[in-house]
Each structure stands twice: as C-alpha cells, then as structure tokens.
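Hello forum,

I keep getting stuck at the same step: I have a sequence, I want structure tokens, and every attempt I make locally crashes halfway through. Rather than fight my setup again tonight, could one of you with a working pipeline run this one for me? It's a single chain of 569 residues.
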Amino acid sequence: MAKILLISPHSVIEDYSQPESLLAISLVKAGHSVVRVHCAGYMNRFCVGMSAMKLNQESTQDERDKVCRICTIRRDVQNRYFGLRSIQLDSYLNQDAKSRVEDILRDPNLKENYWQLEHFGVSVGRSALYEFLLQHKKMEIHFTEIEWERYRIALRNALLTLEGAKQILATEKPDCVIAFNSLYSANAAFCQLAKNAKIEQYFLHPGTNLSESTHTLMVGKDFTWRLLKDLIRDWEDLKDQPCSPEEIRRVMNHVLVLTHAKNALVYSQGRSSEPKSIKKHFGVRSSQKLLVATMSSYDERLAVESVGAFSAEPKLLFKKQIDWIRALLLWIKDRPDLFLIIRVHPREFPNKRDSVLSEHAKDLQKEFQSLPENVKVNWPEDLISLYDMTEEVDVFLNAWSSVGKEMALLGIPVVIYSPELILYPKDLNEWGITEATYFSAIERALKSGRTYDRVQKAFRWYALEFQKSVIDLGVSKGRPNTLLRIALRLVKALSPDLFVRAQEWLILHYLDKNIKDDQAIQRLFDGYFDHPWQVKAAEYSPVSAETEKAAIYLELKRLPLGLARIDQE
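Reply #2:
Ran it on my machine without issues. Output:
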C-alpha cells in the first residue's frame, strides 16, 4: 500500500480540513499510510487561512495569532479524533534554511527578477503570485510598494515551504502527495517539488454543485483546471449518455441555490420575489429582441495563467473584453430591432466576499460614458439578478464565465468567442472564432429560440461535473441539540479557545464516518487514476432518454415561474 502525505497548512478553513480528514480515514481504512503536514506558525505573517477569516496583511499580529491558535486547535482535534499521524513543517526548518530564504528576499534585484526565481527547481516566483492576484483583482501584473510587500509575504511562505518540503520528502519518502487547492502558493510549492521527484500529486477542491459543496470533493491530478479539461476531452464519448432522475434532481438543487443567491460564491443578486420586467427597467421596446453580454473577471484567469495552470496565449478573436464590447457596439448601433445590455461581472466590484474594486472595473467605468441608444450597462448597484434577466432575454453573449452553461440549462442560446477559455464543452453554446462566424452565430442564436436539445446537453454535462467525477462523502448525521448549543455559548463566554475545541469536536462527532464513495476513493488511489469517473464508470447504470426527458421536465417545474419556457416535444 502507498504512503500518502496530506498537505494541510490551512486547518482553520473547516470546509477544507474536515472533508480532508474524512478522505484521510478512508485511505487509512484501505490500508494506506497517511501523514498530514501542517503549519505550526511559519506562515504567521499572513496566509490563506487568515484571508478566509477576513484578515489582510495589515491586520495586527494579535489578530493573526488568534487565527493561528484556532488553526492549531482544529488541527489537533481532528487528528486526535480520527487517530491520524501528523508532522509540522516548521520542525524541518533549521537556521540555515531560514537564512537561505531571507537572503533571497533581501536580494536588491528581486523585484526585477521575481518572475524567473526558482528554488530547488520550482518556479516559486510565479507560484507565489496566485492568491495575491486574486486578492487584488489584477488584470495585469504590477506592484505598488504596499502590494510588493504583500507579495513578498506569499513568496516567503512558498520558499519556507520548499525548504521544509525538501526535508520531509527525503525523510518520509511518500508515494503520493495531496493538497486542498494545489494552486495556493505554499501548496503549489510543495506539490511541484513532489512532482519533480516523480511522486504522484493530487488536488482536492469542494464540489462545484453549490447545494452539495460541503460533502462532495473534486479529486484529480495536478489542479482543478486539468480535471475540467480532461472531462471536456471525454465529453465526446459521454454526451450521448442520458442522466438519471437522481442526477437531474441534484443539478436542479444547484440551480435553485444560484437563483436564491444566499451562497457566498454566488456573486449575482437573488432573483426578485416579485415579477420584474427587465425590458421595462432598461427601456427596451416590445418589438426589440434582447441580448445580454455577460463579462468575466480577469483576476482568476490571470492567476491561473501566471502560475502555469492554463495557457497564457489562447487564440482569441478579441484580445481583450473591451475589444469584444466595442465590436458589439459597432455592430448593434445600426440594428434598431435589437437591444443590448452589458452586464459587468459583480466579482469585479465590492461584494459579499471582499471590498476590492478591480482594475478592470475602473477601466469599464471610464469606457461606458457614451453608448448607442439601444445599449445600456447593468452595474452591480442596479441590484438586478441574472435570473431576473432570463425571463425576457433572447440571447446571452458570453466572454468565458459559467453563465454559458447555466443559461444553456434553461434552454437559452448563448454565443461565445472564446471556446479555448471556457471550462465546459463548447457545443453547449454557439461560437465563432472570426468576426464573420461570430456575428453569424449571433444571428443563428436569435432565430433558434429556447430548445430542449440545449437543456439536455447541459444537464448531461452538469451530471458529469457534479456527480460522476466527484467523491461523495455523505451528509452529516445531524446537529447538536438545544441543550448542547446553550452549553457551547456558555463555554464561549468563559474560554474562546475551549469553545473552538468543543465546537470542532461536536462537528466531527456529527459527521457520518461511513463515506458514501469509500470504494471509489480506495480504487482511485490504488491505481493512481486521473479522476473519480475513471473508477466509477464501471458501476454506472444507464437510463433511457425517455426517462431522462420526463425527469428534466419534472425538475424544470421547480424553477420560479417564467425561467424555463421549453415547449414539450
């Protein structure tokens, strides 16, 4: 059996560390040797866990130390509860290692050369950019003085991780390493060093079905983008496979989470409880067909491209989104039969997850000062849900966001110019890669209307992404009773640290330790397969297209009235 290292420096993030613990005990039950690798404070200047707890690099040391204490408590409770062996990377950092890192950080030429910086054969200067770029919503890489100091903290964490990882890999001699989000800079450093040593490397990530993300795990080699691209590659062989009623129900649960917009990962407003005419709001005439152009945020794309997880030079019809919008404006200004709403991405503005205004958003505010009379901009302050628009829209024009697959699920035609960038199959949408084919695709979409074929394809893709290719951990057995919750409040008043310890123990107590996909986990790591579908496919029981169709129409009835207008065939 294999020896597996779980890279776990962010135990404070319960949505990471608790599912990871369940995965660990499943691997132990299968006979594997599992060791968790933790941080004992070497990243105390700032880390991903502190960001998740709403701190930043300018937070006080007391605030950061409090997060470190919570992280340590949760780490220790989890390991003792499940009987897992753990080591601290800090104990592998001697003075020589720390001095080497400080020498690199003091290099007067570092700011000019950080992009080329390698340590132990790992491109650490680039990998340290990942969460920095996300935090600052960058569309191009440049630093203010404050930002440079923030980046240096991430770089320091990654360099120290490499120093410790080198010693750990030599001592523990693992067959495999696993990290929750292998793109986070410290995790990426450890994972890349392991890969360079020909050690198998996997990532974990919460399932992308938002109704199940607390108990499903994406698992695969390298990082999330590789898994999704692998599934797209397999799509040709799977797109004719009907979904089961259970898969269709679970997909619809996700859609309902999107329409309600209570989840922190949903950037749109929730759908209005009262009927809301988007055409009336924006002054669209009844005779005009309505197009909505959904823009995307640049920071996520820049982050994955910068760390080498995605092609940095995709072949795009429009180099920048503003070039795309300008082409649309030129095309539509002489089309009085059409009306265009430009929907800027809410993530680029202060939102429920952060208070940062992106660089791209600032540029857009300047760009959209003068527009044709049949064009309006939908800003986040309009408080309009994407799902308010779906009732009256005729066609969505998408950059590369998930809107392309979400709207296909409702049967709405979507046109893209970026088939290389999207993380779903391009045949869910219409597309064009020259101006002539792109605008022809829009005309074709305007004529097509909402079709069942489009809905069917989208459900089949979502079933592959949400169920077939993830590990289902199972759901919680329950929650503490009223008396226990009252006792917890009393403990919190007496000792915050004891409260965290008691709360963590109770959460673990109520988790179901009988993991639903136990066998799939074991077979996945026994054979080092790329992702779960490769081991789950043999047990899949196909259903008929008629059964699938009946289930789809049944589930569409759960949507708010007006969202799904697919004629029965």
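The radius of gyration is 25 Å. If your local run keeps crashing, start a new thread with the error log.
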